[in-house]
Design a protein that fits this description.
This protein is α+β, with helices and mostly antiparallel strands and 363 residues long. 25% of the residues lie in helices and 31% in strands. It is globular. It binds adenosine-5'-triphosphate (ATP). Adenosine-5'-triphosphate (ATP) binds next to helix 4.
Length: 363
């Protein structure tokens, strides 16, 4: 059955998805039977319907650079993919819109949903792969494989892409999408009592770094400098705190004078800091790095190690590979920040678990 995107492209239906903003589906071209489709290893055979690839574009990403770059990129994208795919373009209208677009796209049977923007946009698209604690299912048609996640990294930090060695180079990203190689990757999930589940793909972090991220998000107009400004602001009034931690449902332990806890599904955060150097989204676990009793001058002296990922041997730094971790503030109070993929999530307590091989990703 034709997907809704195909019908929209043909002008058969007037309404696309939940609150679409700037929807534009490319007009399908006449099928080119001579085209070599063998490179679409994740895609259908030449007798299958055209694939719907949904691009979720944050026009405000990287202080508006994402929107401008996307405009320049479209002609190339059409020439590279338009022959075999319906290119469906959605602009996000504000925070969380990418989640709705993604859910609807998966339900309608999209072959892939591609986040175009930074880690925040990718984070929302990943959250759109889930609903009510379960993966979103495709209602529309029988498919050989589930909807894949893709990324055109065009953000300020674009930290997730660094783990794979991908640059902020959209042409390189389009080649990956054209090749369509897919592999299963893990996703992290964060929960709290009586609260909604929240998914992340890159790094979740607690206390000083999360507070720094909270402030950094206000200064994105300064590019990567926002992370330095955010860190300086977070240091004002910062205190290391005693936290209770439980790993893999074991015994609770008190970690004294915790500065930050970073839980990596991938390696980088904060605009290129290799904070969880042993993490990888396809290794089936999360790497937890705990910094204790750090003073401001420790960051000055050890910052180069944090960027290079050589900090695990430093005093007061520990690293554990986990399936789950629960963290509470020993003295309560609800003042310890938590963020995931650079997005502010609120305050402790939280439980963070790994969901192995949860999503198929175009790598
Ligand atoms: N139309 C919009 N207007 C304003 N903000 C938006 C819009 N669409 C999405 N957003 C928000 O913009 C935030 C940041 O976007 P994104 O991550 O793409 O760029 P970035 O912050 O520059 O990059 P990075 O996260 O890699 O540093 C997201 O959290 C998202 O909720």
């Amino acid at each position: 059955m034709s997907s809704i995107f195909y019908q929209i492209a043909l002008g058969r239906v007037g309404v696309a998805m939940a609150k679409p903003s700037g929807f534009r589906a490319e007009q399908p071209l006449a099928p080119d039977l001579s085209a070599d489709r063998s490179i679409h290893r994740g895609g259908p055979s030449s007798t299958s319907p055209r694939r719907d690839i949904v691009f979720v574009v944050n026009p405000r990403g990287a202080n508006g650079r994402t929107g401008k770059e996307w405009k320049k990129l479209l002609p190339y994208l059409r020439s590279r993919l338009g022959r075999e795919c319906n290119i469906c373009e959605f602009f996000t209208s504000g925070p969380s819109h990418a989640i709705d677009i993604t859910r609807e796209a998966i339900r309608e049977g999209a072959d892939a949903v591609i986040a175009v923007g930074g880690d925040g946009t990718l984070h929302e698209v990943v959250n759109g792969f889930f609903w009510d604690g379960k993966p979103v299912a495709n209602n529309e048609r029988e498919v050989a494989h589930p909807t894949a996640l893709g990324l055109i990294p065009l953000g300020t930090g674009s930290d997730f892409a660094r783990t794979f060695g991908w640059k902020n180079d959209p042409h390189e990203a389009i080649e990956r999408i054209a090749k369509g190689l897919r592999s299963r990757i893990d996703v992290g999930v964060i929960s709290r009592e009586h609260g909604e589940l929240h998914y992340f793909i890159n790094v979740a972090d607690i206390h000083l770094s999360a507070k720094a991220g909270y402030y950094a998000s206000r200064y994105k107009r300064f590019g990567n400098l926002c992370y330095v400004i955010g860190a300086l602001q977070a240091f004002v009034g910062h205190h290391n705190e005693d936290l209770r931690i439980r790993v893999n449902e074991g015994e609770w332990e008190v970690y004294s004078q915790v500065t930050a806890i970073c839980i990596g599904n991938a390696k980088y955060f904060g605009g290129g800091m290799k904070i969880t150097p042993n993490a990888h989204p396809s290794n089936g676990n999360l790497e937890v790095v705990i910094l204790q009793d750090f003073k401001w001058y420790d960051f000055v002296l050890k910052l180069h190690k944090l960027y290079k990922g050589t900090h695990l041997s430093v005093e007061n730094v520990s690293s554990i590979s986990v399936q789950s971790i629960e963290v509470e503030h020993l003295s309560g109070g609800g003042s310890i920040y938590i963020q995931s993929d650079g997005e502010h999530l609120g305050f402790l307590p939280r439980k963070i678990c790994n969901l192995p091989a949860a999503i198929e990703m175009i790598c």
